Amino acid sequence: MDSQKNIINYDGLYGDVNGKYSAEYIFLELIATRSQTFDWNIKPHIHTNLFQVFMVENGQIDFQDATQNHQVKAPCIFLIPPTHLHGLTYSTNVRGY
Q: What is the CATH number of the domain that holds 7?
């Protein structure tokens, strides 16, 4: 991942600058719901208090962390812990949660 001068830190979900969630909060949405809104490209960012679980049923995701790029292909489950720098580029046929 290219070095970023202004990494966005979200307390909640990507793109939600006002989100504040309790530790007991569980949120589920289709991958396409948020990623399509951002043209299938989620820029590098971190979440302070959010542990993410992705279940990919179809398609692929190019996952960028601080040091490497990874291609994640369906079917799979992958996890992103809080404060882990990441960006995601989805194939337009991606399906999952």
A: 2.60.120.10
